[in-house]
Amino acid sequence: MTSLNTATALNGIANLRLPAWLLPPSWPQQSGEPATADLRFEDGKISSLTPSHPPQLDLWDAQGALALPGMIEPHAHLDKTFTIGRSRPSKPGLLAAIETMHQDRQHWTAEDLQQRGKRGLAWAAAHGVTHLRTHIDWFTATPPVAWHEMAHVEEHGVTLERVALVPLGLFANASVADDIARAVAQSGEHCLLGGFIHSSNWDPAAMKNLMHSASAWQLNLDLHIDEELTATAHGLTWLAHYLSENAFSGHICCSHGCALASGSEGQAQEVLALLAAQRVTLIALPMTNLLLQDAVVGRTPRQRGITVLKEAQVAGIPTLLGCDNVQDAFCPAGSYDPLDTLSCALFSLQLDTLFDQQSRLICDSAALTGNAHTQSPLAEGSAATLVVFPGSNIATWPLNSAARLVIHHGRLTHQRTWNQELSHES
Ligand SMILES: Nc1ccnc(=O)[nH]1
Fold first, then answer.
1. CATH code at 42?
2. From ligand 1's centre to the CA of 327, what distance in Å?
3. What is the DSSP string of 348-378?
4. Alpha carbon of 394 to those of 25, 26, 29, 297, 320: distances in Å?
5. Does the beta carbon of 161 sit less than 6 angstroms from any atom of ligand 1?
6. Distance between CA 385 and CA 44 in Å, rounded?
7. CA of 199 to the centre of ligand 1 (A)
8. Residue pLDDT, tens place only, 342-364
9. CA 32 to ligand 1 center in whole angstroms
10. Are 38 and 170 in a shared domain?
11. pLDDT of residue 421
């Protein structure tokens, strides 16, 4: 494969292997797989998507490499990222990680937050992420420094969303709930309301205030909900019933939902059936949930702690996978590569048809925003924005797929060859 040059806009790319979920049902098959595609670009947009017809001498030849549209990172924590060097928890598990985070936040100056947040976003962009949603911890009724600082963290070609991650207890007071929702609503677009909802802080009256204030300020929600193994965790069950009985016009992402996998099958199915009738997306975070759930010193974990993703898919609930924490008290490792998350899910959730079907779990921005009218990525007229995995094939992908070309609006922005450091081309 000849190398690509960053200086000029591309006419397009020939011979790309795209996932079946992205192609129209009439797309031709070759040896039981979707035939490769030729993509043509014009003014930074896709002007045509057709089955390959060689030779297309004016197009760069991808030689059958796998490619995806720009990927999404639906759940990150840019305020905490890259703090592991100074904040290693002394105990395992989620609540201990939260305690360690509280000790570290004395260091969260504007400069510290900017530097770490920018680095996280730049790493995500270099991997091919074009949309990243970060949660930002709130500690009082007024926005934390990180809420303001992350508004100024930018990376070319990446849409950044901010979610206020508010401990449920702060919503117990209806006027505080309203203040928080107003501050989020007045922070501009790409801002959502969220909450940390757990057996340790369960309060149905606070939940009601949270829902009312989100409605009053027309905010979408992204909730950390039932991130625990307690089968009797209340959050998702309460939410499913609340939404069945009360109108809520926004979209809701439910992140974690680990407890759904701890209770009975019947209990999970009942909650999923109710949620499937609402504008709700379920986000699984396999890496941190494997690390933080069933975590006891010196004991091998017996449970996986990951939500019932397959059952949610069967029930018709949109689903996504996120990386969650990167190099902080919650997770010491990570690099903002959605392929790492998908690789982890391959094993921990025993996913199959990874590339052709489940790669959607790291690309579906309509599932993240709830905007069902979003045009299909790579359809004619869409932005010519995609990620190519040179030398890849469906037998090894997503493992062994470090090599990457990121194309934004028809131009190469990042390229990494085998074993090379992340490089930025501009
Ligand atoms: N899994 C997590 C829960 C709460 N806060 C985090 O940063 N991460």
1. 2.30.40.10
2. 12
3. HTT--STTTTGGGGGT-HHHHH--TTPPPTT
4. 20, 21, 15, 38, 20
5. no
6. 8
7. 15
8. 999 999 999 999 999 999 999 99
9. 42
10. no
11. 47
> Which of 80, 196, 228, 324 has most ligand 1 atoms within 8 Å of CB, for mutation?
324
> What confidence category does residue 3 fall into, taking pLDDT thresholds of 50, 70 and 90?
low
Residue 424 maps to a domain: no
Spatial contact of 366 and 69, defined as CB atoms under 8 Å apart: no
Average pLDDT, the chain: 96
If you measure from the C-alpha of residue 351 to the centroid of ligand 1, how many angstroms do you get, rounded to a whole number? Answer: 24
Containing structural domain, residue 43: 12-70+377-416
Of 330, 352, 369, which one is at a domain's C-terminal end?
A: 369
Number of H helices, E strands in the chain: 11, 18
Within a domain: 5: no
Q: Are 272 and 317 in contact (CB under 8 A)?
A: yes
- Under a CB-based contact definition with an 8 Å cutoff, are residues 199 and 234 in contact? yes
- Continuous segment of H or E residues that includes residue 212: helix 204-216
Say yes or no: 300 and 335 in one domain: yes
Ligand 1 neighbourhood includes 330 CB (under 6 angstroms): yes
Residue reference for tokens 């201990």: 96
Q: 78 CA distance to ligand 1 centroid (A)? A: 11
Classify residue 163 by its DSSP letter.
E
Matching residue, tokens 């989020």: 184
Sorting pLDDT into bands at 50, 70 and 90, what band is 426? very low
Shortest-distance atom of ligand 1 to CA 196? 4
Q: Which residue among 200, 223, 325, 328 is best mutated to probe the pocket of ligand 1, counting the most ligand atoms within 8 A of its Cβ?
A: 325
Rounded Cα gap, residues 126 and 116, in angstroms: 16
* Furthest-apart CA atoms within the chain: distance in Å: 67
Are 64 and 79 in the same domain? no
